[in-house]
Input
Amino acid sequence: MSDFLITTIMKPSYLFKHSWLIAIFSLSAAISYAQDQNSDEALNALKEGNKRFCSGQLLHTHQDLSRIDELKTGQKPFAIVVSCSDSRVTPEIVFDQGLGDIFSIRTAGNVMADYEEGSIEYAAEHLGTKLIIVMGHTSCGAVKAFMDIKHSHENRDAHHTEKLGHIESIIQKLDSEEEENEVFKTEGDVYNRAIIANVIHGVKQLRKSEPFLKEMHEDGGIQIVGAIYHIESGEVEFLNI
Ligand SMILES: [Zn+2]
Output
């Protein structure tokens, strides 16, 4: 701010005449502060919201017309959630949140390419959102399709005869993930491990995403967390990645 503006604004006559302006600034600061949680507070808010969802004691906050009024002039979501497009995995519902709370990015298999990373960068850079969750889910059809095509000769043959359309690009994205391919080198519950591996890949992808997210994560400005939503119980399990 220039010296002229500082000295002008600080004059008592200006303060009196423009007290309405100061009141508006104060009010907007208070509204911003209300959503201006650090990443730990944001993570805790999601955990508490999921507990309410699982126990059936939902608050349904920020889901009425007064919230629409609050958000007319802008948004300040406290979390970015990257999740699957699956109709059973809706972040606002499973975390008991409302309008303006979650910046939501959804693709089948929660895969991310440039469009998705650009959307995340927008929220982190311009909206000040400090928490990013990459959330896979049990019984994910996209991961199952990838596994069927990659590892079953029968399905591999079917793949060659049937058109997959743009789904193929999702399969190829999963196939390009190192973590995803590691899963198949050992026996056991390959399906669930593949779902987790895809989340681990997503978290690592964002942590090294240049030019913004990598730097913000290394500086501690944002937290990038992995999670699995259990469609059988409604519980979100946070992963230690
Ligand atoms: Zn899915």
